[in-house]
Amino acid sequence: MGYFKRPVRRSAARAERLKFLDGTRHFEIGAWQPCERLPAAEKDTFLRFIVNRPRGGEMGLFRISECIEDSPDLPAAARSQMRAAFHWFNANLPAPRRLPKTAICWFRADAKQSLRQIRTLIEIYRLLGYPVWMQATRSPGRVVYRDEYQVAAVPHRDRRVTSSAM
Fold this sequence. Notes:
7 strands
């Protein structure tokens, strides 16, 4: 028996968890907006980004870089800028040790240095024809990790995250 004496549907929960962990899972684009501009730096706003793949599916900003780094269409200058941006993230963005598997990492909108590096990545992806989508929110869920650049939060089950912070 589960919480509130209701039976637990383990197979449905397992399928949902595996779908969440899949790197090329499908996001509901209705909750996202094209990343034309980044929002004004507000203290309580959090941002996520995804990139549409030409063969279908969406991936995060960091994971898609593995697919395009060796692309012949990527100019040497853009490749250099992309590597510099990733070097900055590796040097400056703290990696939380332990997070729940359902936690989602969000960038803070008031972290100007990291958003400058993200803007560089977005422009490189656009150069290659990959559309970038952004989601902004003021309530990412239950925050389980926080630093000066990002938060990690477990989404609330009873609320959908919407792009209302813009």
